[in-house]
């Protein structure tokens, strides 16, 4: 599955290219991200533990006032093994910040219960790794304004299966610097960026131009017009984000491919009419083919990437050096 760790790796690759150095490995970033996510879960549970413990005391006081006894119908704390083990040395120092609940990579007995994926830890998880699998993929860069408006800044990918680490690094840079619709992304724009990764799969030929589902499928088309072959694609979220119907999506996709519409599409665009009228543009070309596919998407902003980096630096155990590869 696509995860924010993959987007962090794209950010690391882009930042490293500006600095003229090698980025850290994807494996190192995934390990640190998994520990970061688990630390946040532990912090959230610690918050819940403290809140429920306080509620138990309050409930006890109410019941005690009612019958004059010192009955204790509720425990004062929830005994969650993984949390209590972390706090056993000094419960007063427990904090709700992820950095104070950092997960050590050591294999010692004191941390074995809290390492990601440990079966003894109910919170532990080991997310599927993609290094050994090949996926078609697209990397998208957007800028986010101070008002929160998102604007496309580069999107390039491939339908050829890529080894995930090399594919991410390659297309993170290609989409940042080589999308001919935009000038190359400068280093000054880095703080305003967000990154999205879409892994593609479940490719199926469409019976016709409308044989796909909005919000579920991406669409790849090809056709021949006046002896020339055209082709283009939209990722699964594009049509929904733009508020298009399926007909509008296919017409836009044909224009993206470079089709000028011949007679029918140009007249409809000038009149402002929709594609619902007679003479569908995909019926005016030869050998129109469409393939639908699905995508696994993950996104991260610059601020989220930096927050994760600051957590890594706060560990104070040398792992921050992994980010200086």
From TrEMBL:
Source taxon at top rank: Eukaryota
Pfam (any one): AMMECR1
Annotated ranges, domain AMMECR1: 97-309
Low complexity biased stretches: 81-110
Start and end residues of each stretch annotated as Disordered: 61-126
Native source organism of the sequence: Byssochlamys spectabilis (strain No. 5 / NBRC 109023) (Paecilomyces variotii)
Gene3D superfamilies, per database record: Hypothetical protein ph0010, domain 1
Name of the molecule in the record: AMMECR1 family protein
């Amino acid at each position: 599955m696509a995860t924010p760790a993959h987007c962090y790796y794209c950010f690391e690759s882009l930042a490293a290219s500006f600095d003229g150095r090698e980025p850290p490995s994807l494996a190192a970033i995934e390990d640190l991200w998994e520990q970061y996510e688990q630390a946040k879960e532990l912090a959230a549970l610690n918050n819940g533990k403290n809140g429920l413990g306080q509620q138990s005391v309050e409930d006890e006081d109410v019941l005690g006032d009612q019958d004059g006894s010192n009955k204790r119908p509720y425990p004062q704390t929830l005994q969650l093994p993984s949390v209590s083990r972390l706090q056993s040395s000094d419960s007063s120092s427990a904090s709700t910040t992820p950095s104070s609940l950092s997960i050590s990579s050591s294999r010692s007995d004191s941390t074995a219960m809290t390492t990601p994926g440990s079966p003894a830890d109910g919170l532990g998880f080991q997310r599927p790794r993609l290094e050994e699998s090949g996926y078609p993929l697209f990397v998208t860069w957007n800028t986010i304004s101070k008002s929160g408006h998102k604007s496309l800044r580069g999107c390039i990918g491939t339908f050829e299966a890529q080894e995930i680490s090399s594919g991410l690094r390659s297309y993170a840079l290609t989409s940042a610097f080589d999308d001919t619709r935009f000038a190359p992304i400068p280093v000054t724009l880095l703080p305003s960026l967000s990154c999205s990764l879409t892994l593609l799969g479940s490719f199926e030929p469409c019976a016709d131009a409308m044989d796909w589902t909005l919000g579920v499928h991406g669409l790849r088309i090809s056709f021949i017009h006046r002896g020339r072959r055209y082709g283009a694609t939209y990722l699964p979220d594009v049509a929904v984000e733009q508020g298009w119907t399926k007909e509008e999506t296919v017409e836009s996709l044909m224009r993206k491919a470079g089709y000028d519409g011949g007679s029918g599409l140009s007249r409809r665009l000038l009149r402002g009419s929709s594609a619902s009228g007679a003479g569908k543009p995909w019926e005016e070309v030869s050998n129109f083919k469409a393939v639908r596919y699905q995508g696994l998407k993950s996104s991260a902003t610059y601020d989220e990437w930096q927050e994760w980096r600051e957590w890594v630096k706060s560990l104070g155990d040398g792992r921050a050096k992994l980010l200086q590869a």
